[in-house]
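Our example copied in:
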Amino acid sequence: MGLRKRQSAEKIKEAKKDIAFAKLNNCPTSPRKMRIVADSVRGKNVDMALTILKFSQKEASNKLEKLLMSAIANWQAKNEDADVEQANLFVKEIRVDSAAMLKRLRPAPQGRAHRIRKRSNHVTLVLGSKIIDS
């Protein structure tokens, strides 16, 4: 490996030290419904995001709350010596992409059939930290 490539790889590795992520694949909720909840926590502090998700009436908020807890656990596993409260974690990025669609048929009048599309999604949540020196 060349010198520039090694230095670039070390910079990327150092930058990834402050972030942690979690993924939720093939969640059986439509992406549109999931994005409504995801937009409400994007950029928020982790404590505030957990509170929003806990008291939200949407069904998708339960799945996102569990995903956020998983991302926090991943961050703690990566940074064992750091404290979560001191790290000032926030939701750096949250992406909701569409996944595979189940296609079903529903009987319709006069011998016809209508298509029912049962959508699902993939969610990627990235946590960033703003470490404050005390």
